[in-house]
Amino acid sequence: MYDNIKISLTVPFVTSYRADFCARFGLLVKDEKKQIYSNKGYETLTQNKGVYMHLKNSKLTLEFSLHKFYNYCVYEKPFNYNDFTFKEAQTAAAWLVEMFNRYFDIAAAKVVKYEVGINVITSENPDLYLQELKQINVNAKVLPIKEDTHYKEYKQFSTQRDKDKRIIYIFYNKTFEARSKGKAATRANIPENVLRVEKDNKRPFEKIVFARLFDIDFMKLTVNEFKQRFCSDLEYKGIPVKLENMKRFEFDLLRLIYEKGTDGAKARIKADFENGTIKRACYFNKLRVIERISATTPEIQIQYSRRAIELNNLIISKIETVHKNGLF
C-alpha cells in the first residue's frame, strides 16, 4: 500500500500553460515571502482529490496519498484504512498521469519520499499490541522501537526519527488516527482495531521516478524487503524463562540483560553503586554474574505474550496474502 508520496519535477511551462495550470488546480494561494504558489485549502484539495501542490518558479512539488487518491476517485471519499492492491495502485497512478498529461509527464517525476505499509485487524485495542514491540534488527544494527511522545499515549511507536534517518519503521493505531480526523457522520464506518505497519522512505538512496514504483519487479523487491523487516527482523518484548537452579537475584539480572543488553545492564548496576543503592561487594558480584549469564545467552528461552504472538501471526499472514493476491 503506497501512501504519503512526495514527488518533484522541473516543469518547462510556457506562460499561457502556467496560468492555465494554476487556475485548473487551484494554485491561487501565494506565500509572498517564499514566492510559492500552492493549492492549500479544503476546497482546492477536494477538487484535486487530495493532491497538494506548490509551485516555485518552475519547480513543482506534489504530495499525496495514492491510496486516498484512489478512494477519492472510486468512492468520492478520502480514506486509507481498507486494503489497497498493487493493481489498484497501478490504476491510480495511471489516473494521475492522465490528470496531468496536458501539462507534463508525472511518470518521470523524481520521488522524494514514499511510504509503504499494511493494515491488520487485531482482536483487541491496537494500543495493547503496540506496547509489545521491542526493536528491528537490520543487518546486525539494532533499531529500538519507541513510543512517539508527541502523539496520544500508546497510539504510535517508531524507530528513531532524526533528520538523518532515511528509513523509519512506524506502527500506529489506525482506527484512532482515522476517527480523530474524520467527521462525526463517517466515524462509524471506520472499522475497529486497525493497526498500521509501515516503512517510511525519506530521500531514497537511489533515484526513483514515479513510474518505477509501479514496475512489477520493483514491487516484488518492495514486498520481499517489507517481509524481511516485519516478519524476520521485527522483535517483540518478552520475558526470559527462569533456568533450572537459577537464584532469584540471578534471574533479575537475566531480565535486565534481556531488556538492556549486557552493556546496559552493567551501566544500570554501576549507577546503583554510584548512588549508594548497592554496596561495593554486591556491585562486583553482580558484574561477575552478568558476565557469566551473558556467556550463556544462546541458551536463554524467551516467553512472549499472547498479543505479541497474535500480532506477529497477523503481520506474517497479511504479507503472505500480498504475495498471493497483490494486496498492499
Helix/strand layout:
Layout lengths: L1 E9 L4 H11 L3 E3 L4 E3 L3 H6 L4 E5 L2 E6 L1 H10 L10 H15 L9 E12 L4 H5 L2 E6 L2 E4 L1 E2 L8 E3 L8 E7 H8 L2 H4 L6 E9 L13 H17 L1 E3 L2 E2 L7 H27 L5 H16 L6 E2 L2 H20 L3
Antiparallel strand pairs: 1-5, 1-6, 2-3, 3-4, 4-5, 6-12, 7-8, 7-13, 9-10, 10-11, 11-12, 14-15
Describe the structure.
With 328 residues, the chain is an alpha+beta fold. The protein has eleven helices and 15 strands. The strands form three sheets. Strands 2-3-4-5-1-6-12-11-10-9 form a ten-stranded antiparallel beta sheet. Strand 7 (133-138) and strand 8 (141-144) form a beta hairpin. Helix 8 (216-232) packs antiparallel against helix 11. The longest helix is centred in the last third of the chain and has 27 residues, at 248-274. The protein is elongated and about 85 Å long. The model has no long low-confidence stretch (mean pLDDT 89).
Q: Please give the alpha-carbon distance between the first and last residues.
A: 4 Å
Based on CA atoms alone, the radius of gyration comes out at 25 Å
**Helical content band:** 40-55%
Shape: elongated
Counted by DSSP, the helix tally is: 11
Spans of at least 5 consecutive residues with low confidence: none
Q: Can you give the mean pLDDT? A: 89
Q: How many strands appear in the DSSP assignment? A: 15
Strand order of the largest sheet: 2-3-4-5-1-6-12-11-10-9
Question: What oligomeric state is this?
Answer: single chain
Please write the string of helix (H) and strand (E) elements.
Answer: EHEEHEEHHEHEEEEEHHEHEEHHEH
The major beta sheet can be summarized as: 10 strands, antiparallel
Instruction: Briefly note the structural class of the backbone.
Output: alpha+beta
Strand content: 15-25%
